[in-house]
Amino acid sequence: MNAAVPVAIALALDAAIAEPPRRLHPVALFGSLVAVFDREWSRPRIAGLAVAAALPLLAAATVALAVEVAVRLHPVAGALAAGIVVFAATSLRMLTETATEVVAATETDLSAARERLRWLAGRDAADLSAAEVRSAAVESAAENLADGAVAALLAFALLAPVSLPAGAAAAVWVKAVNTLDSMLGYPDKAHGTASARLDDAVMWIPARVSAGLLAVAALVPLSGAGARRRLASLSAARRWAAAPPSPNSGWPMATLAAVVDARLEKPGVYVLNPDAALPSVETSRAGVRVVRAAGVLAFLLAALLAGVGYAFAPEVVAWL
């Protein structure tokens, strides 16, 4: 079965149902497992290193076994199983719908918008203005494009042409690393240091690929002078990308700040595109649309890479 097929299945499932039910969602189940290890340790850094090494491998091995069983039953069953795994490891529609809801709520109910922002961003929103809430929503949509779609898709596309179980395991391993970082990777949690550093390494390429996809998604509808102005603004995004403390998140966020020409800011931490105004409702909606388009491009890119890889997989296996 062509390795591009599971990517197509995942995109179709994302469009149709957005997310698996929470009580059955593999990421939620993995989060429950991580919570068991989120406690005080006598040697927190050693414990954190063991957690960062073991838990993603456990999740990946479990998925690889399940997909291997499906492949042995029938190639179609294997492709379907791998597609479900990729779907569970990505979250494009839910991401963009949630960001859209937060932006809309800033017009009608700022308290509700602040509350809903917690679904996207782990920051205290109690004192944020409506524009600052919109900024946080747009920033998070850009950052989570890398975490919630591009990283797992690239991991799958890399290994799936050789083995669907290996590709599914790679996607889940990356998602597990992201989940560990989101739950443990805080400065006040010494046992999360290893998870945070591992996530920094894993996300280096996906963050930059996400920035490229955002740029392409924003440039495609333009032509002539509009495209030239947008390209000029993207050159500044490379400078802004270093502003956030993360080595990776600044790339997609700065790129989106450039393409929608809006100031994106986490008060007291960083400012992207400082000469622009904070995003209006319409600018924020445009930003979310760009993220949605870039996410679709990510699926298409993964399908292309997986399909091309599948064509050459026999030669690669023979060479190895």
TrEMBL record:
It is found in: Cell membrane. GO terms for cellular component: plasma membrane. It is a multi-pass membrane protein. InterPro entries: Cobalamin_biosynth_CobD/CbiB. Its main location: membrane. The keyword Membrane applies. It comes from the Archaea. GO terms for molecular function: ABC-type vitamin B12 transporter activity; threonine-phosphate decarboxylase activity. One of its GO terms (biological process) is cobalamin biosynthetic process. Signal peptide: none annotated. Pathway: Cofactor biosynthesis; adenosylcobalamin biosynthesis. The chain crosses the membrane at residues 46-67, 76-95, 149-174, 290-313. It holds the Pfam family CobD_Cbib. Keywords: Cell membrane, Cobalamin biosynthesis, Membrane, Transmembrane, Transmembrane helix. Belongs to the CobD/CbiB family. Converts cobyric acid to cobinamide by the addition of aminopropanol on the F carboxylic group. NCBIfam families: cobal_cbiB. This is Probable cobalamin biosynthesis protein CobD. The lineage of its organism: Archaea, Methanobacteriati, Methanobacteriota, Stenosarchaea group, Halobacteria.
